[in-house]
Structure formats: C-alpha cells, structure tokens
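Journal club prep — side note

Before the paper discussion, L.F. wants everyone to see what a predicted structure for a comparable chain looks like in token form. Sequence:
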Amino acid sequence: MNTPSTEVGRRARKRLQMLEHLANTAARLFESQGYESVTMEQVAEEADVAKRTLYNHFPTKEAALAYWLDAELERDLAHLQDDVAKCKTFRSRVTCVLDASADWCEKHPTYLAAYLRHRLLSVGGSGGDEGRSDGSDIALAWQHLIAAGQLAGELSKAFPADQLATWFHHLYLGALLRWLNVPGLALKKEFQAITKLFVEGAGAKVKVPRSRQ
C-alpha cells in the first residue's frame, strides 16, 4: 500500500525525469540546429509531449537551456572536488572553480547570452525556477566555499554565507556579461578581478606614514 509520502516521492521523481528528458531533447536540437533557430514547438514535437506539458515544466526556451547548462556544470563541479580539496585557501579554491568555469564558457559562447538573461532574472530566488532544488546551480558552490572560508577565519562572518554567495554570484554573472560584450578580454583575468574585489574590497588602501625617529 502506497503512503502519501511514497506518492509524493514518486511524483517528484517523475517530474525530475521529465525535466531531464525535455532539457536533453532541447539540448540536442540546440547542438544540431543552433540555439536561435529552435522553437519550443520543435522541442515538444521532438520530445513527443504536448506543448502544454513542455510549457508547464519550462515556460521559456531560456529556462530549458539554463536547466541543461546547470546540469552540465554540476557534472563538471563534481569532477573538480578533488582539485578543490587540495587548495589551502578560499581564494585558491574559488579560483579553481572559476578557471574551470572559464574554460567551459570559452567553449560554449553561443549559449551564454541567453543563459545569462535567464539567470540574471532569477538569481537570488529560493529554489529552482523550473522546480530544480538539487543544488546544482553554481551559486550553491559559492555558498559552500564561502562558508568554509568563514569557518577558517579568512572571510568575515558579518553576513551569512548565502547572502555573500548571492553577491558573489552577481559579480560572477557581471564578469561573464562584460567578457561577452567587450572584445579582447580574458575571462580568467575577469574572474581574478572579481575574486580580488570580493576578498579585499574596493576601498583604497591608505598608507600610514612612518613616524620619524
């Protein structure tokens, strides 16, 4: 006999399976036909679902793209765990993640503008805007790294880790936007700059003159 919790769990699994099926179908179309040319109607037809089903899970094409890219990012972050664990400081750990992100972004520039439009509208919200709540968004990685930095005394505890993670995530997205829109920039250097700003702040360092003996 099924209990209410069992039924809820089954529905959640089915929803997750459908999200992954739809996102992966959309991704195949994006790869084969180009992102801009693919329509939501094509995705529904290729996935063999009603358009209403597709829109219930992903209200926009950008949402489907973001879900797929977040899943790709989650897999990449999982592979980075050993490398991050070897790093001794917050700055080195976050740089490890950012360098990997830069490598990925430089290989997929055609998707980034649409992804960023979607993420900038949803950043800081609670949970996934497509029902995703498995913590795959890179903002959760920032939160874990920041919390560890606070615990080690490297970062201030004046603000909670989740709040700092949201602020850092805005810096991250801003660096990506700047890289996309300003020719000739090196993405890794842009990420180094936001890390320096986050850790050290933007205030001028005033040199105190030595007193004369």
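L.F.'s comment for the group: Confidence is low (pLDDT under 50) at residues 126-136. Keep this in mind when we get to the figures.
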